[in-house]
Amino acid sequence: MNILCVAAHPDDIEILCAGTLIRYVNEGHQVTMAVFTSGNMGDAVIDPEKLGRIREEESRAAAALIGAKLIWGNVMDEHVFPDREQRRLMIDILREADPDIIFTHSPSDYHPDHRYVGQLVFDAYFQKGLPHIPDQRLPACRFGHAQVYFMDNLGGIGFQPTEYVDISAVFETKKKMLACHKSQFEAMQQLASTDLFEMIEVQARFRGMAAGCRYAEGFTRLDAFQRGLTKRVLP
Amino acid sequence: MNILCVAAHPDDIEILCAGTLIRYVNEGHQVTMAVFTSGNMGDAVIDPEKLGRIREEESRAAAALIGAKLIWGNVMDEHVFPDREQRRLMIDILREADPDIIFTHSPSDYHPDHRYVGQLVFDAYFQKGLPHIPDQRLPACRFGHAQVYFMDNLGGIGFQPTEYVDISAVFETKKKMLACHKSQFEAMQQLASTDLFEMIEVQARFRGMAAGCRYAEGFTRLDAFQRGLTKRVLP
Amino acid sequence: MNILCVAAHPDDIEILCAGTLIRYVNEGHQVTMAVFTSGNMGDAVIDPEKLGRIREEESRAAAALIGAKLIWGNVMDEHVFPDREQRRLMIDILREADPDIIFTHSPSDYHPDHRYVGQLVFDAYFQKGLPHIPDQRLPACRFGHAQVYFMDNLGGIGFQPTEYVDISAVFETKKKMLACHKSQFEAMQQLASTDLFEMIEVQARFRGMAAGCRYAEGFTRLDAFQRGLTKRVLP
Amino acid sequence: MNILCVAAHPDDIEILCAGTLIRYVNEGHQVTMAVFTSGNMGDAVIDPEKLGRIREEESRAAAALIGAKLIWGNVMDEHVFPDREQRRLMIDILREADPDIIFTHSPSDYHPDHRYVGQLVFDAYFQKGLPHIPDQRLPACRFGHAQVYFMDNLGGIGFQPTEYVDISAVFETKKKMLACHKSQFEAMQQLASTDLFEMIEVQARFRGMAAGCRYAEGFTRLDAFQRGLTKRVLP
Amino acid sequence: MNILCVAAHPDDIEILCAGTLIRYVNEGHQVTMAVFTSGNMGDAVIDPEKLGRIREEESRAAAALIGAKLIWGNVMDEHVFPDREQRRLMIDILREADPDIIFTHSPSDYHPDHRYVGQLVFDAYFQKGLPHIPDQRLPACRFGHAQVYFMDNLGGIGFQPTEYVDISAVFETKKKMLACHKSQFEAMQQLASTDLFEMIEVQARFRGMAAGCRYAEGFTRLDAFQRGLTKRVLP
Amino acid sequence: MNILCVAAHPDDIEILCAGTLIRYVNEGHQVTMAVFTSGNMGDAVIDPEKLGRIREEESRAAAALIGAKLIWGNVMDEHVFPDREQRRLMIDILREADPDIIFTHSPSDYHPDHRYVGQLVFDAYFQKGLPHIPDQRLPACRFGHAQVYFMDNLGGIGFQPTEYVDISAVFETKKKMLACHKSQFEAMQQLASTDLFEMIEVQARFRGMAAGCRYAEGFTRLDAFQRGLTKRVLP
């Protein structure tokens, strides 16, 4: 399968979805990590242009670690809007990955970039498969078909997972991916008093405690007409 | 009364609301069908410009069948946005119909065009009656007053009707209206494996089963301040 | 139509539903007021047995004012339980009234007696029409058919009406019905610092403000399979 | 795996879950059908005692058709209560089946027997695995472990499936199982104007339309601590 | 503390939040009232440009009454959009006030300007504290930290307060603030049959009745990651 | 103030609320811990009668550690029911503590004993202050007045805190209280693969991460009419 994760900022994928992506890689699937913005506002001192380049390098290193493909959206950080221009960009991202499964931010998360990336994925879903959409860089990929899952919210606020993925066996690799984002450790500590490694440890342990395993990532599924919902015998 | 139904694509009204509109016509009310986009992306082969013209003809035929007025919004299919330009268009659509009752898409439906048309109706509600809104084509109509109902979602996903309209006696006419949209039968079958006639049969039967009649269409009411909510003795 | 309102305590009907009942009376329908408990705990001083008799008299006076029939359940105040014994009593109340429309407490109201009366109505709905239920006082009435509406919560806490009934023209009569419950004015003031007349004034004005009239009572409909839901053309 | 479906009345399993059970049988799992009441009130004329015997025979025939085990709870129809006595019975039913997966009624369904059976399953879940619960007929089975799924509501009212099972290939067998319940065809037609075969056809088609297959049954999962929730890679 | 209230139109703050603001003033905090639009469409006859100037004067008078600072956004009435331009304006409003507490409209209120102002506050929250956001008039203020509360909806429709503020002692001052908005008394009466003074009286009494005091204003808290949520011992 | 926490089993208070209780003790308030059942089913081997005595000793030790009063309900473990008998017991527990603030289990928690204890508190609230309730051991305490808060669910499943209490400074004492429940460490490990100390560490860290402190306990408030809701200036 083609697995696509679309997140707003460099390191969001590592924080919320990397364990699950590693499991797909281990099972032989093709994984694409799409980072919509350059994360170039994420430091109080470093110049945005310079920071954007640093963070792209960090994201490429994290993706390389597991052999995932990286799509770099390069939208200006803190400037995601569900408008025509960014819809077009999102359609091309979906077309490039031609996904069977899409992970993205929940529309109830805390950061506007997160929320609007999730909305753009929902909105671009149909157009990825329609051949006559004007002004797109890439031709249409498969129509419909893909299933969409929303990643957990930061701190779990306003999010109740309905799906859990056991990432106990790959949690160390998830931490290594996060460790590629060196530019953020000090910035997040100073700006938001947040220790990123402790944050993913606590959240993955809490979701694991709910599911009944050591570490887990939590998700919900976007259910809508013609989204190719699962129909397997349970569970 | 003036009854207005605003939908995103040609054939949406026929699928989700036609039975109810026929009942209004039969009771002597004035019915207006407003189609916001031209539906010109709805085929994998036919050229959008040509398809737009075909679908306008099909919509006009369906409206003519029951003596309803048609407003053709002509926005490009798959390109509905709740922005300034489309807000203006929606205000003029509401002004042209000067409705007592408005039907439109639910904000939780599967297609972005559906969701944003519903949002635009909610957003344009007040401006339809304010005389000083600049750059409108038409003068203000009555202020407030109209009641807004959301139509069912496709497949019923994420929608729980609170109002049901018995359309058993007019279901054959609803099918005839849908039959005007010839361009879509093959396209929907190829693109989305969907038989439109079976789709309306199953959905109307399921909603009828819930309500206790043969065929029904389901709705919810948009409740908000100064929306002229009903105050009748129940039921 | 046969209209039935089942409430937990004497004066609950007057507070939450009397305006609507008066409108039914005025339109020629048969109205039954069922009070499930005797309200005999509703005073810090007066002996329960004596208070129960006083409150029955007060309820009979209020019902007589509008020509409604009164059913006196006589369950001990503060002791409503959704158990076998009270289920049986509720089935007989429903059978005695053979209602087309039932009003009762919402399952989210503040008082356990309110919540369990609402639950008992929901639970007894089917058995009212089944002839073989053992140990009932009365034979089965019509099966299914009746529509159930939940009355507003006190203070509106946890309740969002979806139906409003305009009671502006009958609000004075509603106050007269409440005025029959003399035993409660001082008790509610002392026990709960509540002025009952001000309470119904404020709640009916607030719901009226939402609906767009002077005074209104608010309701929601209990939707469930085979509840004979309305299927009229809207609104 | 041991699969258990606990329903309130004979024919409930056939209507809401049989397609899914057949798929388990076809995959080699052990399926147990538990009917909590005897359904002995389900006819306006036939004597309850006699009807109870007829319905047990019908249920046994339906279970035999697919080689499932039948547990006959024999509680009086219309008399399910979440009390001590029926809790004990439910604990023994769960112990007898020692299930890996449990299907039961949703707590929001229309019939009190349905709702209370679902509540009893939720309530008895822990006690099935605790050895010291007094007055049980059977010794404790495995602690925790089982996953619980709620079946669809009748008419879909108040129920939004999050899981769909494709039953297209086994729908004919589901109909044959329903056909064993001969006593109900005329009774449901007379009492509730319901054609049972049309009812399952419409509901399975509607859920299938949502999921993207011909026939489906819809479910939600009961998520709670120590319920052994799934942790697989999605979907 | 720095207290900021951001509302869509002149008089919204007075209607929904003034009592609470007065209490802050009385306790010695710095209060800023930000009015996002000029309210210049709020009359069927008066020219918008002229009306905008009148309403600014009225707002300044109301703010002066309690010694609050006024920020005049001057966006065209009925034209609030969550786009890039208005995001920038909102960021500067937040930076100017550098708030510890922010009050704004709920995203479920009836008027699009209300809903989008609430959304803009949610969206601009992070950018207020990030130094590199381009094209801002003001430098970054403190990062994060502020708590956000949503004000009640008009008529309470779709809003359930979880926080109540007792404004009994300052209700007269609230009325005086509203009295500054002379231009609206007749306009609201003619356009929407609304008596503004009666409206605030009824809503504050209803919320007070729920909370257990004479007059109250109701709020909910916006909970999201890194919003500096309260952690005090309750209540 | 009088602070009361009512939980189902010995150790529930320590797991979900002890940090908050310690803070009240430190501020000079009177704290009462009420344990509704004896927890006597909580071991696969030890005889229930013996285990009940052990667990009472453990609970008394934990309460003594912070100088809290202990009420021992002594209901049989796994046998909580919201019936007449246990309602009477709960009324007396409330009367004995005469609380200003009550903490109890959320009605959505995983264990039936938890859910029914929460329901019993909600249901017994009014009767605690009514003098004529028959068959009570204790006379009525103050009417109404107390505020009720629901404790977090285990694993956070189905619970979104709206109130957080910072327990960082008292977390070590919370652990010491939990350490009194020696009988449970091995039992929970064997029966449910749960390490209790790790469980409270992870849950308190996760809630702290959401709130913005090291360790927190999360709560929601039960809002209902005449519950004496807070009316303070925010936050």
UniProtKB/TrEMBL annotation, chains A, B, C, D, E, F:
It holds the Pfam family PIG-L. GO terms for molecular function: hydrolase activity, acting on carbon-nitrogen (but not peptide) bonds, in linear amides. InterPro entries: GlcNAc_PI_deacetylase-related, LmbE-like_dom_sf. Transmembrane segments: none annotated. PANTHER family: N-ACETYLGLUCOSAMINYL-PHOSPHATIDYLINOSITOL DE-N-ACETYLASE, N-ACETYLGLUCOSAMINYL-PHOSPHATIDYLINOSITOL DE-N-ACETYLASE-RELATED. This is GlcNAc-PI de-N-acetylase. It comes from Chitinophaga cymbidii.
